[in-house]
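Title: Prediction job returns without error message
Component: structure pipeline
Severity: low
Priority: P3
Assignee: unassigned

Description:
Job completed but the reporter wants confirmation the result is attached to the right record. Sequence as submitted:
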Amino acid sequence: MRLLVIHGPNLNMLGTREPEIYGTMTLDEINGRILAEARRLGIGAEFFQSNCEGEIITRLQQAVIDKTDGIIINPGAYAHYSYAIRDAISACAVPVAEVHLTNIYAREDFRHKSVTAPVCSAVLCGFGYMGYIMAVAWFHANRRD
């Protein structure tokens, strides 16, 4: 099983970006924890981060060509308004789990709606980096070998 983890805009700034909201763990540290859990479960993991909507869409499309088994995506703020990323997720025919570090329902009103969530197979929010770990476990439990 191979998973692709896509991190959206501003996630490259984790550790220094609003630590009172997002914590002090860096994206590299989060990726390390995801990779450790994936390896423990016998799963391969690849990571991609972009601040650009089009690059995220292109990577989602490439995941289909690469025959990726599952995608974990934190679309960041794009979750709230990117119908283009929503369409790419919908078209990719690969199971997708959406992850948000924070509880989007406990934040500003504009964050309460995710336009990408309805086309995802699972959504996790508010668990910090553990949301990614839970998504890896979910894919493992639902693998189609």
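Comment from assignee: result matches the submitted record. Helices lie at 19-22, 27-40, 53-65, 83-91, 130-141.
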